[in-house]
Design a protein that fits this description.
Number of helices: 3
Radius of gyration: 18 Å
Distance between the termini: 63 Å
Order of helices and strands: HHH
Number of strands: 0
Structural class: mainly alpha
CATH topology: Methane Monooxygenase Hydroxylase, Chain G, domain 1
Number of domains: 1
CATH class: Mainly Alpha
Helix content: over 70%
Shape: elongated
CATH architecture: Up-down Bundle
Largest sheet: none
Strand content: under 5%
């Protein structure tokens, strides 16, 4: 256990940051999961509607420092690609 005041404060700050990071990451992952579930059900319209929300949450998580900005971009790029492919298959 920490002995100095500064070390104790660091522990408290780390706990707060960990909670906030988990919150932002969890919301982002849930949004992406909902898109994947919609695509699995062949519900492209719902997936398209959910995409902007997932994008917003991913970039917010990156802005808050919970994830790296390139990770946010990569996740959104991959899910957007799946939505576009599903839309093409639906129209074809």
């Amino acid at each position: 256990m920490a002995h100095t005041r500064s070390a104790k404060k660091r522990i408290r700050q780390a706990a707060k940051r960990r909670l906030l990071n988990r919150y932002h990451i969890s919301r982002m992952k849930t949004a992406i999961k909902r898109i994947k579930e919609a695509l699995a059900k062949k519900d492209v319209e719902t997936a398209e509607k959910l995409l902007p929300l997932a994008q917003k949450l991913a970039y917010r998580a990156a802005a808050k420092g919970a994830i790296h900005k390139n990770e946010a971009a990569r996740r959104i790029s991959r899910i957007a690609k799946k939505v576009v492919e599903a839309k093409k298959q639906l129209s074809a």
